[in-house]
# Entry
Amino acid sequence: MAARSILKRDTRNSESMRERAWRNIMVSAINEGLRRKLFSLRPGDNQWPNHGEPYVYTFSAYNGIEAIACIKDAGFDEISIHVALWPTKRAEEFITSCNAGFLAGEAFARGWFLRQNEAKLQGFDKGLCCRKHLIQTIADIDMKPLSYNDKGPAPGYLQW
# Structure
């Protein structure tokens, strides 16, 4: 009988297909928000109308995939972001909820855009609700962030 290793592999730096899908959905919404100048990479620079309230916008995420996003000031120079691809007819009604899931669209992601020390995407831990047949399609999109870090740690990871 072969000896089993008691050391666990560090998986924080490896990306699963679900993590890549989540990342691509979030990056598409952040990039669109930056393009529209709804917010910037600078701490506290929220520019959407009534930035004390949630703001909802629609956009084309990639190759004509319809999307809807909701941004909210989360305090501490963070923006809470919820995004749905292939939105439902009632997506605008549900997208403001952090657990909207399939009520908002065929793929739903949530996370945070931090801007305090550096601009970076943060989240993932159960932040994706996606139809199984779409995960690979979304994960394979070549989505590049616009001058920010898209590999921030998930909440709860300790940084030493």
